[in-house]
Write a sequence for this structure.
């Protein structure tokens, strides 16, 4: 039970410290971000509580300005490759190119086999030919 009296405020302080560091400067209220960091670290129990209550500009979901819509409005890059249509198209193009290359190799091998068969039929020497070569 005594350990909880130490662990809970420590966990709260760590959470508030990391939250403060991850918050952008324009989302901090009342004081600069560096001041909030010092308040959180110096005032061990009160500092994190004050940060969580008054230090960060919170957006409510009811107004439609929640973090998800804010992030969507600000983000100009794709999150994951599977969400990027250009990346998916390049994968399809690569797949099509590999397929075409494999087909070309297959046609080349078939052509070589056909030429070998023609040589054998026309009396040329082939791997199955039993007659010794003449000089």
């Amino acid at each position: 039970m005594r350990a909880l009296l130490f662990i809970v405020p420590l966990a709260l302080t760590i959470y508030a410290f990391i939250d403060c560091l991850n918050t952008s400067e324009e989302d901090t209220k009342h004081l600069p971000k560096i001041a909030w960091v010092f308040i959180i670290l110096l005032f061990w129990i009160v500092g994190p509580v004050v940060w969580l209550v008054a230090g960060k500009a919170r957006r409510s979901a009811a107004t439609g300005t929640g973090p998800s819509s804010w992030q969507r409005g600000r983000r100009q890059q794709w999150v994951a490759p599977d969400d990027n249509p250009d990346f998916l198209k390049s994968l399809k193009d690569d797949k099509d190119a590999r397929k075409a290359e494999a087909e070309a190799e297959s046609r080349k091998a078939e052509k070589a086999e056909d030429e070998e068969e023609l040589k054998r039929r026309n009396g040329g020497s082939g791997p199955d030919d039993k007659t010794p070569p003449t000089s």
In short: The two ends are 102 Å apart (CA to CA). The helical segments are 2-22, 33-42, 46-55, 67-74, 85-121.
